[in-house]
Amino acid sequence: MSINAASHIPVYEQIVEYIRGSIAAGIHHPGETLPSVRMLALELVVNPNTVQRAYQELERAGLVRSRKGVGMFVSEQSPESARNSSETAVQASFSQGIAIGKRADLPTDRMRTVFDKAITDATRDQRQAEDKP
Amino acid sequence: MSINAASHIPVYEQIVEYIRGSIAAGIHHPGETLPSVRMLALELVVNPNTVQRAYQELERAGLVRSRKGVGMFVSEQSPESARNSSETAVQASFSQGIAIGKRADLPTDRMRTVFDKAITDATRDQRQAEDKP
Amino acid sequence: MSINAASHIPVYEQIVEYIRGSIAAGIHHPGETLPSVRMLALELVVNPNTVQRAYQELERAGLVRSRKGVGMFVSEQSPESARNSSETAVQASFSQGIAIGKRADLPTDRMRTVFDKAITDATRDQRQAEDKP
Amino acid sequence: MSINAASHIPVYEQIVEYIRGSIAAGIHHPGETLPSVRMLALELVVNPNTVQRAYQELERAGLVRSRKGVGMFVSEQSPESARNSSETAVQASFSQGIAIGKRADLPTDRMRTVFDKAITDATRDQRQAEDKP
DNA sequence: GTGGTCTAGACCACT
DNA sequence: GTGGTCTAGACCACT
């Protein structure tokens, strides 16, 4: 993953979304330990405090549990909950785009075309990223 | 229009997008004057400086021209240009949502369903808003 | 108010309790603005980030609302809610003391005496503080 | 005994208070050996280092003496001293609760009621715990 | 090593 | 001036 420093979305929110997605996708299972605050900070080239804040948001949402001196753990009811909130975030982004399109009087058909193109692009980019290494 | 104070998108950016959409939609035509900074600030319940900043962004993008002591005007090549950048903004939002969905391993079909629902909701909300007044 | 830096209770929690008490006591009424992050930080001789965190906790609890560029405000249903949570905090402290006393086999009567003494001391200290200036 | 991981009071302090209470209550008499660091760590599901630190605090307070290769012993003047410091801890908790209540303008009568309820609850909980096994 | 709190200081959006 | 995010760096409790 890489942080988009130019985005208006706060870095810690980006991390929350990323970890939430990992749990929703089953990359991390309930009970498993997550990357430590410091390790993830190194990986994302971000200050540990920022990762800490992301983890605290996730803990407040009940997706993870922290144990002092041990680490962060995926909690039990996480996957279901993570899937739901990820889907909500997806819909929020789509709705935002649709609102912009409506204001510009973009026809629904055109928006659908733009959406399909975005899906195709994302899938292609993903394939390329997977082929590279 | 209403400003979403809770959004991560800065208010001035929301205003830019709104005006850009108005031009793209032909609500404002080339040569026409735009609402004054003060009027728009009152309407959006926002500080005039914030509107000012939005107009500056639009001017930098070449969509509007300011004439001292007279007001802001939609520039000539605006509609075409506005349509393009609005569409780019739409696609950016969609791509962001798709990225979140991919990370959460949401199937493409599911994303399409979410998209359709978002379109339907937006259209319904719009109709209701138009019927009300 | 003064922060107890030696306490195990985090500084931001102490601030939360303090503001919550102010609202419960009616020192700040719904709609009123609270001391700004920076001003309170100066007053308590604490880093602004720490005050910020306290305010964010209060906002999450629905006791205050923040408005960018304007300030922090006491929310409407605050006083009732603040009174309840302050009372809960009071009971938690009492219960903690009672647990320690039980372990040490301190008779209930003795605990009651200790409690009365603490009440008397607190009231006396308060009077002296009020008389001084 | 059980450790409250959620409490702001450090685990080692909770252990200190617990042992101190045991001595004050006469559960451990002067000259008696205390549970070994390892045994207590196992019982409390805590790292031995944490128990070690608690014992060090108790030794510094003169309540226990360590004899290399043998174990920890309750010192002679312990019970009296333990009772005093337990009572001080009890009063500190009460005072803390009272301070919170005062800030929230809770009437003294109300605090007394809260205290009585806490006492009753603690006594009931204790009875239930004793009945269970 | 791992989570949690705090400070000093910077920069941004908004009023 | 006011809230909000972020970094660099320190110190604490716990494993």
Describe the secondary-structure layout.
The structure is a homotetramer of 133-residue chains.
Chain A: H1 11-24, H2 37-44, H3 48-60, E1 64-67, E2 71-74, H4 78-103, H5 108-131
Antiparallel strand pairs in A: 1-2
The structure holds a DNA duplex (15 and 15 nucleotides).
From the structure above, extract its key features.
homotetramer, 133 residues, mainly alpha, two-stranded antiparallel sheet, 5 helices, 64% helix, DNA-binding
Assembly type:
homotetramer
* N-to-C span of chain A: 15 Å
Q: How many strands in all of chain A? A: 2
**Portion in strands of chain A:** 5-15%
Mean pLDDT of chain A: 93
Instruction: Please count the helical segments of chain A.
Output: 5
Biggest interface between chains: A-B, 47 and 48 residues
Give the spatial strand order of the biggest sheet of chain A. Answer: 1-2
Q: What is Rg of chain A?
A: 17 Å
Structural overview:
In chain A, strand 1 (64-67) and strand 2 (71-74) form a beta hairpin. A two-stranded antiparallel sheet of chain A has the order 1-2. Chain A has 133 residues and is mainly alpha-helical. In chain A, helix 1 (11-24) crosses helix 3 (48-60) and helix 2 (37-44) crosses helix 3 (48-60). Chain A has helices spanning 11-24, 37-44, 48-60, 78-103, 108-131; strands at residues 64-67, 71-74. Chains in contact: A-B, C-D. The interface between A and B is large, with 47 and 48 residues. The first copy, chain A, binds a DNA duplex (15 and 15 nucleotides) through helix 2 and helix 3.
